[in-house]
Amino acid sequence: MRIISGQLGGKKILEPKDKKTRPLKDLVKESIFNIITHSNKFETRIVDANILDLFSGTGSFGIEGLSREANHATFVENYTGILDILKTNIRNLNLDKKCNIVEKDVFKDFVFKELSLRYDIIFLDPPFNEKEISLILSKIHNSNILKKNGILIIHRNNKLKENFTEIFKVIEEKKYGVSKIIFGNFG
């Protein structure tokens, strides 16, 4: 895995050592950032953005955003098998001052309202078999942490039929192999 573009473009990111973590493929990541940069369907931009990377794994999404001049990234991850890799990636790239790691379970003990920032981009990359996405979306909505023109990006298996809460408005959906990327907001 590597950082695709920006100040850190071409640098390597450590990968997971086990099969439990499903890293975001470079092609999919590049496509997401191209859509953010060039889409006229939403106003969010990467430069100076605050990014919330939920189920962050190795941190590749948030790190890519920081490389492309995002202001700050908050990584939320609780799987001990990947936390050391996430911390090492951040340390190796000297990004400590531009990000923080929250070591909590998004479903159980993480409280969105405790975050000190509001975010321009929120990226959700839960396990493909996770069915409680609407619960997370409701918590995000109720906590008011997504800025008015912010965007939510969800990485899912393309075969899953999503049953999102009515507060979430899908703006665009793209498929890449087994992945589906959904861009949306709260209207």
Protein described:
The chain is an alpha/beta fold and 187 residues long. The protein has one domain (26-185): Rossmann fold (3-Layer(aba) Sandwich), CATH 3.40.50. It has 4 helices and 7 strands. The protein has helices at 26-38, 60-67, 80-92, 133-143; strands at 50-54, 72-76, 99-102, 119-124, 146-157, 169-176, 179-185. A 7-stranded mixed beta sheet has the order 3-2-1-4-5-7-6, sandwiched between helices. The protein is globular and about 40 Å long. The mean pLDDT is 92.
Which descriptors would you attach to this protein?
single chain; 187 residues; alpha/beta; Rossmann fold; 7-stranded mixed beta sheet; 25% strand
CATH superfamily: Vaccinia Virus protein VP39
H/E series, N to C?
HEHEHEEHEEE
CATH topology: Rossmann fold
What would you report as the Rg, rounded to the nearest angstrom?
A: 15 Å
Question: CATH class, please?
Answer: Alpha Beta
Terminal-residue CA separation: 34 Å
List the helices and strands and how they pair.
Elements: H1 26-38, E1 50-54, H2 60-67, E2 72-76, H3 80-92, E3 99-102, E4 119-124, H4 133-143, E5 146-157, E6 169-176, E7 179-185
Parallel strand pairs: 1-2, 1-4, 2-3, 4-5
Antiparallel strand pairs: 5-7, 6-7
In short:
With 187 residues, this protein is an alpha/beta fold. The protein has helices at residues 26-38, 60-67, 80-92, 133-143; strands at 50-54, 72-76, 99-102, 119-124, 146-157, 169-176, 179-185. It has a single domain (26-185), classed as Rossmann fold, CATH 3.40.50.150.
